[in-house]
């Protein structure tokens, strides 16, 4: 059985997907279908990581 998202072999905890990532992608498809909103989750995540990095480097 293969992951419907990327075609890799499935992994038990994430069936029918190969990973949480692919399960999230499938979920996002459903959510996007419901709300018709472009996905910005990864952009938001990058911003958070950058902000955290700046905060850490910033002298106080
Ligand atoms: Zn997959």
UniProtKB/TrEMBL annotation:
Zn(2+) binds at residues 3, 6, 18, 22. It comes from the Bacteria. Belongs to the DNA gyrase inhibitor YacG family. Binds 1 zinc ion. Interacts with GyrB. Inhibits all the catalytic activities of DNA gyrase by preventing its interaction with DNA. Acts by binding directly to the C-terminal domain of GyrB, which probably disrupts DNA binding by the gyrase. Residues 39-60 are annotated as: Disordered. It comes from Ruegeria intermedia. Keywords: Metal-binding, Zinc. This is DNA gyrase inhibitor YacG. Its cofactor is Zn(2+). The keyword Transmembrane helix does not apply. GO terms for molecular function: DNA topoisomerase type II (double strand cut, ATP-hydrolyzing) inhibitor activity; zinc ion binding.
